[in-house]
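haha ok so turns out i had the wrong file open the whole time. this is the CORRECT one, sorry everyone. sequence first:
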Amino acid sequence: MLCRYLLLTFIILTLPLQIVSAHESEPEAEHQQREKPPANWLDEKSGDSLPLDTLFTDSDGQQVQLSQLIDKPTLVVPVYYRCRNVCNLLLGGLAEALPDIKLTAGEDYRIIALSIDAEETPEIAAHSKKTFMTALNNSFPPQAWTFLVGSDKNIRLVTDAAGYYFQKKGEDFLHPIAAFVVSDKGKIVRYINGYRFSSLDLTMSLIEASENRVGTPIRKALEFCFSYDPAGRRYTFNLLKVSGTVILLTLGSFLLFLIFGGRKKKS
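then structure:
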């Protein structure tokens, strides 16, 4: 764990400051209109769906629709790849948590990193993907983590649908530090805030998004032991519920033993 963390830190700190972009800038009037800051940076829209017919370009330069990628529970992480601060911490925190997720990447879930910078290219996305695959010692299946770039219009179609708003500020972006989990139909089921990911939060959220595909008994047992805290936006161990249940079961078993044990002695 320590070696993986040190490797990840080294890679992030040695990322190049700039990679030349070949995209043209958007018209000035449209650019200024989009620069107006939103009233609320993150307006959670759980239950709404992403526009799965939206086109993007992956790190291999191939055009793909979201519907081709979101065919199973998916964690969508909006970032921009040239960011040297929060975005790299966000992706780094995710890479650190992935080995402890109790699901099979590529079969049970997948991840999409979505650039919010319309000027970033597939080459930049490929560089970022290589960085975090290396941080994972290439143990994570590459096809299960897709790095996307796209036009400003298509990016905002997705982020607006998720209530995720951002604003360009000089060479950087102001944006929420958040990701969201969607079902295989693109329905938003959970938001995860902050740049430190909990493997339990990720596992529970992906199971929740699987719509019983992973296994109902396991999910119900987990939901009984862990409660979702909307304020903290994480799952917490429900100590009172579990300990109370154990005590009641113990007392019930003891009473049954006294009742049926006494009857056997009398007979």
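DSSP finds nine helices and eleven strands in the chain.
again sry for the mixup
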